[in-house]
Amino acid sequence: MNKHQQSGMTTLLITSMLLIVALLFSLASYKNLFYQIKRTQNEVLARQAHWVAEGGLECGFSAIKKYGDKSEVLSVFNRCEKELNLSKVYLDVNDYIYSEYNSLSKTELRKKIRRSPSLAGAIQAKSDLKLMGDYDIYPDVESIDSSGKYKCVSIRYSKKFYYETTAGKDELEVFDPEENGPYDGFTKDAECVVKTNLKANTSTENATKDNLKEDFIYDDKFDPFESALGAPRSELEKLKKEFKEINGSKTQCDKDIKEAFNETDKVWVKGHCDLMAGTEVESLNNTPRILVIENGIFATFGSVEFYGMLYHLYTDPISDMTSGWVGMSSGNTLSSEDKKKAVYYQAGAFVPVGGLILDSPEGLSVFRSSMAFHFKGEANPNKNSDFLWVKGSWHDF
User: 156: which strand partners?
Assistant: First the structure.
């Protein structure tokens, strides 16, 4: 074999070896590529499963926001499972919502919710509270005992309470809650464990306070703000953006309120508001509403029903309110002595059936009336909004 033949075989051998090495590298890279493709596909399936499970959390949370602890929430959970092809959506005893998905990829998510401090009470007062006249109260409920009777809450208060009769047959009588009163589906056969019945003048400043039964709850530390409005006091300015804000009036407040309610179901009034007869407010249809009066005197002599909740918020310092009552025709029957401290007065049967919150710690709220207060939780659009995501367990934005 000559020199030229040996040189050709060497070249061929080297070339073959290089091709074999290149093939090995190619096969190795293809194996890695196939691995990456499979991994990507698995990741896509995992993310699809994750977002379906997240949808189950949202669906379940919406059901809880609407129905709370009532039995209807279970049927909605079942619909969430069916519509999203989930294996399970449920709420455990520790207030965790679970969403399980097992089709494309097995995924289980859970997020914790919390119950906002929802306070029961047809009337809730952080002001001194004086009731004069004749009253029938159909209360809210707080809990149920082993016998099936309810702990009813007629009035929750944190300051002084007074009841005065103005005629021989006057009394303050608490009845069992009415059907569908505290919430939709509440049975008409439900009974309160105890019910207050006052037939004589009663004051928390003396021994007559014993006339008040357990449906009158004294709590000097309770704060109705977040319970009623759905946000802490620290978020007051942010909360107000959800409302239609208007200025108060001593001559046409009811008309201004009605016009604002034609645009929204939440109205925030700043300053004094004399509702007078309140016929404009009474003409509103049965859509649940919230009316807030901030840092102004509120007064009315009308005998009307407002299908909503009234929140009277007075945080300004109070020295002598007498000058503020000038021009408030609804306050003509309020005594000169009470005008010094009173920031709320009604001389008629004005009934906000969704609840009445009197949040004026330095003030006095006075009623001179003969009325039946039929509490209806459904008239408060925030009544069932007492469940929130725990911060840090969900999107915090």
Answer: 124, 217
Tokens 């809730």 label which residue? 124
Look up tokens 């079942």; give the residue: 78
Distance between CA atoms of residues 252 and 259, nearest Å: 11
User: Which residues have a Cβ under 8 Å from the Cβ of 32 and sit 6 or more positions away?
Assistant: none
Instruction: Report d(CA 143, CA 150) in Å as an integer.
Output: 6
Whether the CB-CB separation of 55 and 82 falls below 8 Å is answered with no
Residue 24 burial by Cβ neighbours in a 10 Å radius (0-12, 13-18, 19+): exposed
Q: Phi/psi at 310 (nearest 5 deg)?
A: -110, 125
Reduced DSSP (H G I as helix, E B as strand, rest coil) percent helix, strand, coil of the chain, to 5: 30, 30, 40
Which residue carries 């109260």 as its tokens? 137
Residue 189 DSSP class: T
- Residue 345 burial (CB < 10 Å; 0-12/13-18/19+)? buried
Instruction: Note the pLDDT tens digit of each residue in 307-361.
Output: 999 999 999 999 899 999 999 999 999 999 999 999 999 999 999 999 999 999 9
Q: Mind listing the pLDDT tens digit for each residue in 155-210?
A: 999 999 999 999 888 999 999 999 988 887 788 788 999 999 999 999 999 999 99
Helices 3-67 + 72-84 axis angle, to 10: 160
